[in-house]
Design goal:
By secondary structure, this protein is an alpha/beta fold. The protein has helices at about 20-25, 30-40, 55-65, 85-90, 130-145; strands at about 5-10, 45-50, 70-75, 95-100, 120-125. Strands 2-1-3-4-5 form a 5-stranded parallel β-sheet, sandwiched between helices. It binds 1,3,4-trihydroxy-5-OXO-cyclohexanecarboxylic acid.
Length: about 150
């Protein structure tokens, strides 16, 4: 069965309480439930994780090699700072969809640069929590087309 890792980076554990004007009121647990519902509908499995620790995120990406078929990654602020995350994605050679709740290009200039985009299959941003099921759908469609 197709298996997708949904990986969330720093501060995303605070969703629902954190800047609701920017990120909405949906919690990370709500988003996990949305992902599981979408995965069930598509007959794929989802492993849903969050860490505030850059090294832990690197370890999870490394462990994904050979155990999942693709990664949906909301790297939070590490998107804009972490060459290490970019290198991890290049190293594991798995398709990665970069995801953000907010439209990072419509926000502060420091959020316009993403170290992830250049090694990602594609980018979904600006659709809030709804972006997560969109990304699962896009990954499933990509994997199916790639055979
Ligand atoms: C975010 C956007 C990032 O710029 C920010 O640092 C986050 C969340 C998003 O989902 O919109 O933590 O990745």
């Amino acid at each position: 069965m197709t298996s997708i890792l949904v990986l969330n980076g720093p501060n995303l554990n605070l969703l629902g309480q954190r800047q609701p004007d920017v990120y909405g009121t949906t919690t990370l647990a709500d988003i996990e439930a949305m992902c599981r519902e979408k995965a069930d509908a598509l007959n794929v499995t989802v492993d849903f994780r969050q860490s505030n620790d850059e090294g832990a995120l690197l370890d999870m990406i490394h462990a994904a090699r050979g155990s999942v078929d693709g990664i949906v990654l909301n790297a939070g602020a590490y998107t804009h700072t972490s060459i290490a995350l970019r290198d991890a994605i290049s190293s594991v050679e798995l398709p990665v969809i970069e995801l953000h709740l907010s439209n990072i290009h419509a926000r502060e200039a420091f959020r316009h640069r993403s170290y992830i985009s250049g090694v990602a299959l594609g980018l979904i941003c600006g659709f809030g929590a709804a972006g997560y099921p969109m990304a699962i759908q896009a990954m499933r469609d990509h994997l199916e087309a790639a055979g």
